[in-house]
Write a structure and sequence with these properties.
alpha/beta; Amidase signature (AS) enzymes; globular
Length: 512
């Protein structure tokens, strides 16, 4: 839904003189980190009820314009009161970092409660999931309060070859809180916008190819895409079990790490992937890698390719000069002007073979997800396509068609074409990215904005985006650090050290 100029003007005027309500004269919730909130809990300066009330009020105030929250949990205040009682009784769960902390989940992550799980589509409205998604169950076990569902690019941006980033039928068009006209980027737009605008403490997004890293970069927040399988995809509306991953989107690296620690690990509903990736989880978790001197001695690779790096003497390179300086100042060794091995062979694989594989994987995975629902208006991709055609006005097909769905429906499992594509993707990852990392003994690959996302996506590699500045128009941009599977500890050290040295992030400006 378009935002009227009058309404936007009112928002800007209101915010320009807005003084955020404090819980007490000593503590303000706005921009508060998980650590800040936990200390306020312990010092009796804050309760979970007051925290939830603050975020609910911010959602009521800002969501009519930003449209980043699809639904609010009607039980949020009840859950907040429960957390306050547990804290008062010193229950064991109250020691968890996320206990009593409100979190928004992207609307493709299932919750077995009063919230819908629809991937932004009316086709799934009213469907009943059999259980919490694996990550949702772990969040509840950690005592987190599920505040609601964040908007997204419908069906995680896999419905159309020409999507509108941040748009879905149920939520409308999400808006970047820094500059209204800026691209919010897809598909975890609601998760990124909501935490950027202080409508939630922390959030979860999902990524198949850039959908955590991209909206985080364009909305000035931290996005952490874990190694595929490190977090469960059980109960998540799928695209590709080979590439899908669930990760935190937060305002700080430390908050993202607290969330990551809570959601990693084995889940029997995603048994093969989570069992394999569990071997990467370090003893003692990930919080131990939040080191201010984490850049010291790290070898960071910078490629000069115009598609996947920093072209020499380009505008992009100049934009990140301050970031490079801070990385060197922190003790990192920048291995510059690298070339991705076998790039001429890698690019067509990323563009062609990835899509061939994704189309077939999507149909198989989505059909399995839909069949597992307790009740649902649709039971297959074919049903979803038919629903969209029948209710084209409701789903606004004139703006957002479904050609990708139609292509996926034509596939017939993993045949010879798909097997060849999958072999090509594996080979491209080994000869390209893994060769680059090992040959140059790199701890991480540094890329601007989201340029490295496709390379990292096809191999299931992890990445973290950190705010790196704002352009002349006030539009945010981030810097990403990617690594080999299981390299989350190194990426956390690098990202946290960079964040602490730069402090680039600032609250939204709400520019028209």
């Amino acid at each position: 839904m378009a935002v009227s100029k009058l309404l936007l003007g009112f928002l800007v005027v209101t915010l320009s003189g807005f003084s955020v309500t404090s819980v007490s004269s000593e503590f303000s919730i706005r921009e508060a980190t998980v650590r800040d909130i936990r200390i306020a809990f312990e010092q009796n300066k804050l309760t979970s009820r007051k925290l939830v009330e603050f975020y609910l009020n911010e959602i009521r105030r800002l969501n009519p314009v930003l449209r980043s929250v699809i639904e609010v949990n009607p039980d949020a205040l009840y859950l907040a009161d429960k957390a306050d009682r547990e804290r008062k009784a010193k229950a064991p769960v109250s020691k968890s970092w996320l206990h009593g902390i409100p979190i928004l989940l992207k609307d493709n992550i299932a919750t077995k409660d009063k919230l819908n799980t629809t991937a932004g589509s009316y086709a799934l409205l009213g469907s009943v999931v059999p259980r919490d998604a694996g990550v949702a169950a772990k969040l509840r076990k950690a005592g987190a309060i599920i505040l609601g569902k964040a908007s997204l690019s419908e069906w995680a941006n896999f419905r159309s070859s020409n999507p509108s980033n941040g748009w879905c039928a149920r939520g409308g068009q999400t808006v970047c809180p820094y500059v209204k006209s800026a691209d919010p980027c897809g598909s975890s737009t609601g998760s990124a916008i909501s935490v950027a605008a202080n409508m939630a403490a922390v959030s979860l997004g999902t990524e198949t190819d850039g959908s955590i890293i991209c909206p985080s970069s364009f909305n000035s927040v931290v996005g952490f895409k874990p190694t595929v399988g490190l977090t469960s995809r059980g109960g998540v509306v799928p695209i590709s079990p080979r590439q899908d991953t669930v990760g935190p989107i937060c305002r700080t690296v430390s908050d993202a790490v607290y969330v990551l620690d809570a959601i990693v690990g084995y889940d029997r509903y995603d048994a093969v992937a989570t069992r394999k990736a569990s071997s990467y989880i370090p003893h003692g978790g990930y919080v131990q890698f939040l080191k201010a001197d984490g850049l010291k001695g790290k070898r960071l690779g910078i490629t000069k390719d115009p598609y996947f790096g920093f072209p020499n003497k380009s505008e992009i390179s100049q934009l990140f000069e301050q970031s490079f300086h801070k990385l060197r100042q922190g003790g990192a060794i920048l291995v510059d002007r690298l070339e991705i091995p076998n790039l001429e062979a890698v690019i067509p694989i990323l563009e062609g073979d990835q899509q061939i594989a994704l189309l077939a994987e999507f149909k198989l995975a989505l059909n399995a997800y839909l069949k597992d629902l307790v009740t649902s208006p649709v039971r297959s991709l074919a049903d979803v396509i038919a629903f969209n055609k029948k209710f084209s006005d409701l789903e606004k097909l004139h703006k957002y068609d479904q050609d990708t769905f139609l292509q996926a429906e034509k596939t017939n499992g993993i045949g010879q074409l798909e097997k060849k594509a999958l072999r090509n993707l594996t080979r491209a990852s080994k000869l390209g990215f893994e060769n680059l990392m090992r040959k140059n003994k790199l701890d991480a690959w540094v890329t601007p904005l989201t340029s490295g996302a496709p390379v990292l996506a096809v191999g299931g590699y992890p990445a973290i985006n950190v705010p790196a500045g704002y352009d002349d128009s006030g539009v945010p941009y981030g810097i990403s650090f990617g690594g080999l599977r299981g390299s989350e500890p190194k990426l956390i050290e690098i990202a946290y050290s960079f964040e602490q040295a730069t402090k680039f992030r600032k609250p939204p400006s709400f520019k028209p």
